[in-house]
Amino acid sequence: MTTEITHDDLQKNQTSEMVRTEQLVKRFGDNIVLNGVDFSVKRGQAVVVIGPSGSGKTTLLRCLNHLEKIDGGRIYIDGQLVGYREQNGRLVEDSEVNIARMRSQVGFVFQRFNLFAHKTALENIIEAPIHVLRQPKNEVIERARVLLEKVGLSDKEDSYPHRLSGGQQQRVAIARALAMNPKLMLFDEATSALDPELVGEVLKVMRQLAEEGMTMVVVTHEMGFARDVADHVVFMDKAQIVEQGPPEQIFNESQNERTRNFLGRVL
Ligand code: ADP
């Protein structure tokens, strides 16, 4: 049997979807926050989600790995239904084990870095691969060091979070997510809590990941990043996707009044 990868396989991989939502609905009480959202991300794509505050961007991201329960529609990651399973023609919430397994394949980087305060940078990174994936400690440490180098923090492996700047903590958080070898990375306003002079170092790591072909969804207010790094830009307003397309289309050629209004205010 041959395991050689054929051109057709590559084509299939490149065109297949890593994320797909179908008519996604999410409410908080009477507030409809996602109103029939069809969103998709192809394998290897960096998709950047932009839009006014309160338009539903963060909620969309949180729904993708089932940090929020949804009220309608479906979400698939790599072809697998997320958070729910079919039972007698109805959707019921999936088991905690299955949800945890799905989450272990999706890296999530939050606005606040959420590092374990009592663990060093290296210990933060090795925690989940050892305890969740049960990988051998020496291999995990070796890989963690490679990841620290990748995010430019080789000299900080023994530092505790309180000795690191916000930008350094966020880079450790990215390395920690990557240590799980995720098939998808989600970034929720990963630079919004940082002092302006620290934003660039985090965006640089994110840009490098995108260039390496990591599939990622990035919610951000950094329009420069969206313009330069995104393969595809999604503009949300009032719980819906209003417009989407390549950055040139959204930033230079949009005919949509809501898109143009928003960009007029932020650029
Ligand atoms: P964005 O990321 O575009 O700023 P969000 O997804 O954070 O938007 O929020 C969309 C809407 O959902 C807002 O009206 C917000 O107040 C509301 N919302 C978000 N999270 C919650 C929550 N946990 N409980 C109640 N309302 C929420």
UniProtKB/TrEMBL annotation:
It holds the Pfam family ABC_tran. InterPro entries: AAA+_ATPase, ABC_ATPase_HisP-typ, ABC_transporter-like_ATP-bd, ABC_transporter-like_CS, MetN_ABC_transporter-like, P-loop_NTPase. It is a peripheral membrane protein. Its main location: membrane. It comes from the Bacteria. Keywords: Amino-acid transport, ATP-binding, Cell membrane, Membrane, Nucleotide-binding, Transport. Residues 19-263 form the ABC transporter domain. GO terms for molecular function: ABC-type amino acid transporter activity; ATP binding; ATP hydrolysis activity. The keyword Manganese does not apply. GO terms for cellular component: plasma membrane. It is found in: Cell membrane. Belongs to the ABC transporter superfamily. PANTHER family: AMINO ACID IMPORT ATP-BINDING PROTEIN, GLUTAMATE_ASPARTATE IMPORT ATP-BINDING PROTEIN GLTL. This is ATP-binding protein. It comes from Dictyobacter kobayashii.
